[in-house]
Amino acid sequence: KLVVDIPIEHPSTSKQHAVLQFRHVVTKDEFGEKKGGVRLYVLDLDSANGSFLNGERVEGRRYVEVRHGDVLRWGESSREYVVLVPPKEMVAD
Fold first, then answer.
1. 27-49: per-residue pLDDT in tens?
2. For residues 26 and 34, is the Cβ–Cβ distance under 8 A?
3. Would you give the DSSP letter of residue 6?
C-alpha cells in the first residue's frame, strides 16, 4: 500500500487531520447490471477545527464522495484545494 502525507502548515490543522482515499465502488444500474469504478472520498479524522467540502463541514469519521471541481479546505486555513480527477470515460473499470 502506498501512503502519501501532504503537510498543511497551519496552526488550526491537526497532525493527522483527514484522509483522501480512492475506493473501488460497485453499483447496479436499472437493469441489475453491476458497474464498477474508482471514486475519491474524504474522511475527517475527528479534527478539532474540521474539514470542509464546498464550504460545508465534513462529518467526522464518515466517508464523503469528492467530485471533479469540488473545493476542499482544512481547519481555519484560507487556502483552498480544487479537486481535479479524470472524467469517468478516462477511468478504467
1. 999 999 999 989 999 999 999 99
2. yes
3. -
